[in-house]
Amino acid sequence: MENTITTPAQPTELCNYCSTKIENDDSFCTNCGYPIKGTDFEQRSFVAARNNIDIDMNEFNKTLKSATMSLYYLAGIFVISGLISFFMNKDNADVLAIVLPNFILAILFLVLGSFSRKKTLACLVSGLSLYIIVQVLNAIADPVSIGRGIIMKIIIIGYLINGIKSAINIEKIKKENNIA
Amino acid sequence: MPEELSIIGDQEIPDTKNCLYCDKQIALNTKFCKNCGASQLPYNAKPLNNSWHLLKQAALFYSIYIVVCCLSSFVDAFKTLGWCLIIEVIIAGTAVLFFTYNWNHNKEILIWSNFSLLKLATYGAIAIISSCLVHYSVDWLNVTVFSTDQHFYSIFDGNKAAPYLIIFFTAVTPAIFEELGFRGYLLQILLKVADKDQAVYISAFLFAIIHLSFLSLFWLIPFALFIGYMRVRENTIWYGVFFHFLFNLTACLFQLL
Fold first, then answer.
1. Does residue B59 share a domain with residue B22?
2. If you write DSSP's letter for every residue of A51-98 in order, what string do you get?
3. Cross-referenced InterPro entries, in alphabetical order (chain B) (predicted)?
4. Most buried by CB count within 10 Å: which residue of A173, B173, B190, B216?
C-alpha cells in the first residue's frame, strides 16, 4: 500500500507539467511545484488548478490587449486630427503651432503603445493620464469640446482603466503562484 | 555561510537555503520546495490585496494636480499674485496631506541617514550643469522653456521683492512640495504596486506631463527619471529636493540676471 502512494508513476527526469529537469529524490518540481511523487488525485488537482489560473490569465490578457490597442488607436486619432487641422489652417501663419501638438501627442501614444508589452502598467497609467490632461486642457480652451465624441472618449478611458486593473491582477496572480 | 551549509548537506549544490515552511535544505534558486512543495516567495514579495485601492488614491492626488495646474496655467483670471499664493498653498497642502495620510509608510524617506557632503556636492554640480545645458539647448531651439513662467514673472512687475518672490515660487516651493508629492507620496505608492523601474517611469512621466509643456518634455522626463532613481537608491527625498532646488534656481537666475 505504501508503494502505491510513494512510487512515481512516470519517469522522474522531466517534470510532467513544466518539463523542468528534476532530481530523483525530489517530491515536488522546484520550478512549478508539481507533486512528482504525489497521488494521481494530487497531480490532477495541481493541473486543474493551474489550468484555472491560465483561463483567468487569458481573460486578463485579452483586456490588456484591448487597452494597449487603444493607445495605438489614440495615436491614430491624433495623426488624423493633426492632418485635418493642417488642411483647415493651411494658409494660417501659425499652422505649425496648431498642428505640432497633435503630432507630438501621436508620437507619445505610439511610443507608449510600443513599450506597453514590456512595461504594461507604466504605459497604461501614463497613457490614461496624458489623455485625461489633453481632455481637461481642451475643455478649458473650448468647453463645448467635452461633448464632442463623448461616447468614444468614455470607451477609451474605460479600456485603459480596465487594462490597468488587469495588469495589476496579472501581476498579483503571478506573484501568488510564484509564476515568472 | 555556503561553506557551513555544504558541510551539512551532502549534495553537490553550490549554494543552498532552508525552505520557508519545512526548513529542509534546498537549492538557492528554487521557486518551490522539493520536499514540501511550498512556494519560496519571501514574505515581503507577496502581492498586496489593496493595489487597486492605492492606485485610486494616487489617481485622486494626481487629479487634484491636473485640475489646479491646468486652471492656473491656462485661465488668465488666476494669474494674479493672490491666486498664485492660493494655488501654491493648494498644491503644497495636497502633497503634505497625501504624504501624511500614509505617514507610517512614508516617514522613512524623510530620514537622511546616509548624509554625505561629497554626494550632495556631486548631485549639486550635476544639477547646475544640466540646468545650464537645458537652458542653452532650449535657447538653441529658439523656444523659451519658461514661456509660461514669463507670464508668471509679469505677476511680480513693480514689486520690490520680485526677485525673492520669483526664487521662492520657482525654486523653493516646487523643490520641496513637488518632491514630497511625486518622489515622496506618489513614488512610494507606485513602488508598492509595481516593480522599481515601472514605478520610477510612471512617476517621471506623470511629473513631466503635469508641467503642460510639450517642448519641456524632452528634458523633464530624463530629469524626473534621474531624481526618481536617485530617490530609490538613496532612500531619502532630500538629495532630490536639493537637486531640484539647484536646478530650478540656476534656471531662475538665467532669467533674472
1. no
2. HHHHHHHHHHHHHHHHHHHHHHHHHHHHHHHHHHHHHHSTT-TTHHHH
3. Rce1/LyrA-like_dom
4. B190
CB contact under 8 A, A175 and B41: yes
- The pLDDT value recorded for residue B145 is 41
Residues in chain B within 8 Å Cβ distance of A165: 52
| Residue B139 pLDDT | 72
The residue with cell 551549509 is B5
Would you state the pLDDT for residue B5?
44
Look up the domain containing B168 and give its range. 49-256
The pLDDT of residue B153 = 62
- Cβ of A28 within 8 Å of Cβ of B32? The answer is yes
Would you call B70 and A132 a contact, using CB atoms and an 8 Å cutoff?
no
Are β-strands B25-27 and B16-18 bridged in parallel, bridged antiparallel, or unpaired? antiparallel
Q: Which residue of B has its CA nearest to A174?
A: B47
For B29, counting Cβ atoms within 10 Å of its Cβ (0-12 exposed, 13-18 middle, 19+ buried), the class is: exposed
pLDDT tens track, chain A, 180 positions: 444 445 444 555 788 888 888 888 888 998 888 998 888 999 999 999 999 999 999 999 999 999 999 999 999 999 999 999 899 888 887 788 788 889 999 999 999 999 998 899 999 999 999 999 999 999 998 888 888 889 999 999 999 999 999 999 998 888 888 886
- Domain shared by B188 and B137, yes or no: yes
Using CB atoms, pick whichever of A30, A126, A132 lies closest to residue B66: A132
**A121·B67 Cβ contact <8 A:** no
What does the domain layout of chain A look like in residue ranges?
A: 56-176
**Chains A and B: how many Cβ contacts under 8 Å?**
108
**CB-based contact, A96 to chain B, within 8 Å:** no
| Residue A163: closest C-alpha in chain B | B52
Based on the fold, state whether residues B3 and B124 are members of the same structural domain. no
Other beta carbons within 10 Å of B152 = 17
Residues 29-88 of B with CB under 8 A from A: 30-41, 45-48, 51-52, 55, 62-63, 66-67, 70-71, 74-75
Does residue B222 sit in helix, strand or coil? helix
A137 to B41: CB separation less than 8 angstroms, yes or no: no
Here the cell at position B123 is 548631485
Domain boundary among B46, B62, B83: B46
Number of domains in chain B: 2
Reported as a single tens digit per residue, the pLDDT across B119-168 is: 999 999 999 999 999 888 877 765 544 444 444 566 666 677 778 888 88
Q: Looking at the structure, do residues B81 and B130 belong to the same domain, yes or no?
A: yes
Are residues B1 and B58 both part of a single domain?
Answer: no
